[in-house]
């Protein structure tokens, strides 16, 4: 899986959610929102885009999934590396298992699985 480019979506979310810019559902914005929704495992995006409130809720949920997933994975990676430096590979693996237990964004799940795979030969 390639690294998703969420920059355009995150720019849109910042403008709409933090700067109170109106959400204009142009064809490009709709395509961006549908692609991002798919990348973060939101299944009802097309229906959400049928109303202004639904579109705004979609922006909020996709942004939440991106931000929380990134923070969750980054925090877990730091703890994992700390445990690895201490030689505690069971605890290091557990950090990635905990991410996988709650993470829905495929990209973040893939990164956590890669970390587990990288530790497969560790004690």
How many strand segments?
0
Helix/strand-derived category reads mainly alpha
The overall average pLDDT, rounded, is: 96
Shape descriptor reads elongated
Q: Uncertain segments of ≥5 residues (pLDDT<50)?
A: none
Summarize the amount of helix as a percent range: over 70%
Query: What is the makeup of the main sheet?
Result: none
Q: Please state roughly what percent of the residues sit in beta strands, choosing from under 5%, 5-15%, 15-25%, 25-35%, 35-45% or over 45%.
A: under 5%
Spell the H/E element sequence. Answer: HHHHHH
* Number of discrete helical segments: 6
Cα distance, first to last residue?
Answer: 28 Å
Rg over CA atoms:
17 Å
Number of domains: 1
Quick overview:
This protein is mostly helical. It contains six helices and no strands.
What does this entry look like structurally?
The protein contains six helices and no strands. By secondary structure, it is an all-alpha fold. The protein has one domain (7-118). Helix 1 packs across helix 4 (52-85) and helix 5 (89-102) runs antiparallel to helix 6 (106-118). Residues 4-119 form the DUSAM domain. It holds the Pfam family DUF2379. This is DUSAM domain-containing protein.
């Amino acid at each position: 899986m390639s690294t998703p480019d969420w920059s355009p979506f995150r720019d849109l979310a910042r403008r709409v959610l933090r700067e109170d810019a109106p959400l204009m559902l142009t064809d490009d914005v709709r395509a961006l929102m549908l692609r991002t929704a798919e990348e973060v495992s939101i299944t009802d995006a097309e229906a959400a885009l049928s109303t202004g409130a639904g579109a705004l809720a979609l922006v909020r949920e996709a942004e939440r999934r991106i931000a929380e997933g990134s923070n969750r994975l980054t925090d877990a990676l730091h703890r994992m590396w700390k445990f690895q430096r201490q030689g505690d590979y069971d605890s290091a693996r557990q950090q990635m298992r905990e991410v996988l237990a709650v993470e829905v964004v495929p990209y973040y799940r893939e990164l956590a699985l890669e970390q587990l795979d990288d530790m497969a030969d560790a004690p």
